[in-house]
Structures are given as C-alpha cells and as structure tokens.
Specification:
GO cellular component, one term: extracellular region
Helix content: under 10%
Low-confidence stretches: none
Structural class: mainly beta
Order of helices and strands: EEEEEEEEEEEEEEEEEHEEEEEEE
Mean pLDDT: 88
Distance between the termini: 69 Å
Number of domains: 3
Shape: elongated
Radius of gyration: 30 Å
CATH superfamily of the largest domain: Immunoglobulins
Protein name: VWDE protein
Largest sheet: 6 strands, antiparallel
CATH class of the largest domain: Mainly Beta
Organism: Pycnonotus jocosus (Red-whiskered bulbul)
CATH topology of the largest domain: Immunoglobulin-like
GO molecular function: signaling receptor binding
Pfam families: Ig_VWDE
Number of strands: 24
Length: 291
C-alpha cells in the first residue's frame, strides 16, 4: 500500500495540533492503521511521543509544550493491517520531517558589499491562536544581528530594514501559517577584511500563549563577501589621484566638482583657496561638500 503520510498543522479548539494524513486503503476487509508519532531529539535520534491504532485515514497529536514543543521536528510513521490478521502488515512509511515553529527563509545567505537588498522571510509553520478579542492575536519578534567568529567582537557586517516584525494569523498555505519580510544589506565598510559571518536572531516579545513562551527560533547565518573598494584623493596643495590611478595637480582657486556618480545621486564638491601667498601659486583644500 502506498500510504504517503503527510503532516499538516491545524488549530483544534484554539490549540495547535499536527495532523497526519495518509491515503485510505480500499481493499476489503476493513483496514486499520497504526500511527507512530516521534520527534527528533537534540542528539538527532527519534523519540516516540504518541501511538494509536485507528480506522480513520488521519491522526492528530497536540503541540502541548511537553511531549511536543515548538522547535521540534516531527515525524509520523504509518503501518496498515487488516482487522483480524494483524500479523499481515504493510511496510511502515515515514512522513517527511515537519519543523514546528518559527524559522527564517532562506536558512542561510551569502551576500556581497554591493549595496543590494536581500529579502529575508520570517515565518511560522504552525497557526497562531487568538487567546483574546483584543490585539493580542499576533506574535511580535525582536530581530538582532551579531558578528560571528571574531576574536574582538565588532559591529556586524549587515543591517536590517526593521528591528521588529509582527506575525499575524491567517490561513496556512504551503509551509507558512504567518509570515513577514525584512531586507538584509551588507555594510560597505571600505576595509579589506575578507568574508565575515554574522547572524540574525529573533526573540519573541512577551507572548501570552505558554506554548510560545519557551520557543527560541532558529538563527540565520549571513556571510558577507568583501568587494574591492575604489578610492580617490585630493591632498596638500592639491595633488589629485583618481579612482583609476591618474595623478595630477590643481592649483586653481574656486569651487570644483571632484567626482560624480553616473548611476546614483552621489557627488563631491571641493573648495580650494590660495595658501601659497606671494611666493608661489599654490592652492589648498579648505572645504568639502558631499551628497
């Protein structure tokens, strides 16, 4: 029998449940199903949490915060047998592992110091219950960033578009029952510091439901790839070195355009004044304006 068990989340009387569905068998006499629920332990081994025998083509288990907690990866294993001949069993079939809780997508990112924005989705794979009639019907997440693996911790190489997001309840679709997005951008630090890793963490802000209180969502690691940075200079009586290495002098008095980008609203103006006196025609930088 091809049972093909699949786990989906559901709210049952305001409580989060997982439902294991499998293809009903049609042959006579009637068929019974043995359903074994298990979770992945921290050591990576499966631990049995519930077992039942049922004629129904589905089985429910509650996320009670004790046997099954948010953050668990859950499996259901289904075996079919005929009533009266339990020794004649089908081969047990496993569902795919279902992660119950809040997670980031993608689960890791590799970006470059090029100013581009990258979408990071934070979602709940289980439905959000509404304990009251007020605005408590949401999960609020505080987001933070941290540099990884540095001997001397410095500011992270990434910046987020928001420090806080709300997950609002809605119908479950695919692997998401509630979702929000933020953008991640690499900080252009003008330093040749190689590829550096940071992480984005999420912390639940004062959840009312006991099920959510002990839940710590998985972090997402963001690796930032260094890109070479162009430099140009204007110094002393101004010697000028351009981005592509040309060198020349400028002794004129006045306000000048030092550089302008063709692709974005960025330009630098320079003001030069006479600093050589009567002896020589020499100009020095006395002011700068950048946009």
């Amino acid at each position: 029998l091809a049972l093909q068990p699949v786990i989906t989340p559901e709210l049952v009387q305001g409580r989060v449940h997982l439902k294991c569905s499998y293809s009903p068998a049609s042959p006579e006499p009637p068929v019974l199903f043995r359903v074994l629920w298990s979770r992945l332990s921290s050591a990576g081994k499966r631990e049995q949490v519930h077992q039942e025998t049922t004629p129904q083509p589905f089985s429910y288990v509650e996320m009670d915060g004790a046997n099954l907690r948010l953050g668990d990866t859950v499996f259901c294993t289904v075996t079919a047998f005929r009533r009266g001949t339990p020794e004649q069993q089908s081969l047990p079939e496993d569902s795919k592992g279902f992660y119950a809780g809040i997670k980031f997508l993608p689960e890791s990112l590799e970006i470059a110091e090029d100013g581009k924005e990258h979408i990071l989705t934070v979602l709940s794979t289980v439905p959000i219950a509404c304990p009251g009639q007020d605005d408590s019907c949401k999960i609020t997440l505080q987001l933070s960033t941290e540099e990884l693996g540095s001997q001397v911790p410095g500011p992270p190489d990434i910046v987020l578009s928001a420090c806080q997001v709300d997950l609002l309840p809605g119908p479950c679709s695919g692997s998401s029952c509630a979702a929000a997005t933020v953008t991640v951008t690499a900080v252009t630090d003008f330093a040749q510091d190689g590829s550096r890793a940071s992480r984005v963490s999420a912390r639940l802000v004062a959840p009312r439901d006991l099920l959510w209180r002990a839940h710590t969502p998985r972090d997402v690691q963001v690796t930032v790839r260094d890109l070479p940075t162009g430099n140009c200079y204007s110094f002393t009586d101004p010697h000028i070195i351009t981005f592509d290495g040309w060198r020349y002098d400028s002794y004129k008095i006045g306000t000048f355009l030092l550089c302008r980008s063709d692709s974005r609203p960025f330009e630098v103006h320079i003001r030069q004044w006479d600093c050589g006196g009567h002896r020589s025609a020499t100009a020095c930088n006395c002011g700068v304006a950048a946009r």
